Amino acid sequence: MTLWLILIILGSIMIIEALPIFISPKKMKEYYRRIADTDPKTLRIMAFVMIITGLVIVFLMRTKICL
Length: 67
What we know:
By secondary structure, the chain is mainly α. The chain has 3 helices and no strands. The protein has helices spanning 3-23, 25-37, 40-63. Helix 1 packs across helix 2. The relative contact order is 0.06.
């Protein structure tokens, strides 16, 4: 993997993370409040599912199974 690819991925993540806050800051603040009120065990399970999903997507793209 080259540096340019890492920078493209990092830039894409930054755009995806910032877009909802830019579009609707009030709703994002409400969403963050709900996250703060959520049980830590539930958050951990949700994060685990997202990690596994991300790993599967990366694996499928790296092996070109989906293409």
